[in-house]
Design goal:
35% of the residues are buried. 30% of the residues lie in helices and 24% in strands. By secondary structure, it is an alpha/beta fold.
């Protein structure tokens, strides 16, 4: 069902993206992407390496404006990066000479000092890093550094948070813990989240909908509703079937039995 305009926070229509190579040939990365995301929704984008997932995310972020088509956020065409869209990369990219709190405060350019400290304290409590506010990045584990990275992206309260494989470099146990924390943040803050991931199980665990991209040039093969109540259980039969449905787009596998087609 098409979303009403009042529900949309991200609206992408007929997005085409090409890169010019050194030999002057053109490489089409994204082909006719049409996607609407509603306020408060959690979207995961999956697809093979090189299919344009991160390019799509960078386009929404306003980091790449050379494309055909239209990308609008909150009803306004994007024309560059904006505080309305936080961005989290796979690497934490914290300033090593700053403490955790200073790294978070850095995102609040132009905000009075006392207000910076208040808001940084609030967001560090939200990501469970209050006890490490005065620590430096070298003193943090990978999971803690990524928490700080997420805190910096959220401290200005953007309505949209874009995440580019934020847990890809973490061990399995830390990844699971941070997935739950991210869901808790989304529920508390009501932030719209769009996340790129290679991990199909992660996508099914987190998302309200999973966008499946084809191999390059990236096109939307399917958008799958993950209509499973939370908390979700990874071994639940319906959860496994959703994983299989996505998995089957990329690999030859036994067809899902007719009784369980979703």
């Amino acid at each position: 069902m098409a979303l009403q305009d009042s529900e949309k926070i991200i609206d992408i229509t007929h997005l085409h993206k090409k890169f010019t190579l050194e030999n002057s040939n053109e490489l089409t990365v994204l082909n006719d992407i049409n996607l609407s995301v509603k306020k408060g929704e959690f979207i995961c984008i999956v697809g093979g390496s090189g299919c344009g997932k991160s390019t799509l995310l960078r386009t929404i972020a306003g980091l790449d404006l050379e494309f055909e088509g239209n990308v609008a956020v909150s009803g306004k065409d994007i024309n560059g990066p904006s505080k309305t869209r936080g961005l989290v990369f796979q690497e934490a990219r914290l300033f090593p000479w700053m403490t955790v709190q200073q790294n978070v405060e850095f995102a609040l350019d132009g905000v009075p000092k006392a207000e910076k400290k208040r808001r940084a304290k609030e967001i560090l409590e939200l990501v469970h890093l209050s006890d490490f506010a005065k620590s430096y990045p070298k003193e943090l584990s990978g999971g803690m550094a990524q928490r700080a990275n997420i805190a910096r992206a959220l401290v200005d309260n953007p309505p949209v948070l874009l995440l580019d494989e934020p847990f890809g470099a973490l061990d399995a146990f830390t990844k699971i813990q941070l997935q739950d924390e991210l869901l808790a943040i989304q529920e508390q803050e009501g932030t719209t989240m769009v996340m790129v991931t290679h991990d199909i199980e992660e996508a099914v665990y987190l998302a309200d909908r999973v966008v499946v991209l084809s191999n390059r040039p990236g096109q939307i093969k399917d958008i799958i509703d993950i209509d499973i109540s939370r908390p979700r259980h990874r071994n639940d039969q319906y959860f496994v079937l959703k994983k299989k449905k996505i998995f089957n787009y990329f690999f030859e596998e036994k067809e899902i039995e007719e009784d369980y087609v979703i």
